[in-house]
Amino acid sequence: MAEHLQVELVAADRTVWSGRADMVIARTVEGDVGVLRGHAPMLALLTDAVVEITDDEGSVTVAVVDGGFLSVAGDRVSVLSERAVLSEEINVDEVRAELDTAQDVGNVDESERRIRRAEARLRAVERAS
Predict the structure, then answer these.
(1) How many helices (DSSP H) and strands (DSSP E) are in the chain?
(2) Is 94 in contact with 85 (CB distance < 8 Å)?
């Protein structure tokens, strides 16, 4: 068994974070999941939510994903999402503006999706503080 997890947080256009970690916490459609060394293999569908990665030195990296997949196999964790952003890359003023305009979208489903994603980004910034 490896001493640490090997973690990849990947968006469609880039690798957002990659390295050794002790723990990953993510929200799946079935609830929050924490992954440590020796975790059983799994594949889960992610929601628009915060992902926390505690690296091998104890530092916590906070990111937000727009849904996607979490794969765990043999102490390798892959978090795959169309869009993933580190908390320090999030512009809070832009996110608040998105929240204000999300209500004005004519389509209720689209409005709810925008609100959910904006709120997840705000939670990521709050957790990283």
Answers:
(1) 2, 7
(2) no
- Maximal C-alpha separation, the chain: 52
49-66 per-position pLDDT tens digit: 999 999 999 999 999 999
Query: Per the structure block, which two tokens stand in for 56?
Result: 């091998």
Is residue 44 within 8 A of residue 31, CB to CB? The reply is no
User: CB-based contacts of 43: which residues, under 8 Å, 6+ apart?
Assistant: 69, 70, 71, 72
Instruction: Please report the domains of the chain, with CATH numbers, ordered by start residue.
Output: 5-86 (2.60.15.10), 91-128 (no CATH)
pTM of the full predicted structure? 0.90
> How far is the C-alpha of 116 from the C-alpha of 77, rounded, in Å?
25
Q: How far apart are CA 55 and CA 82, in angstroms?
A: 23
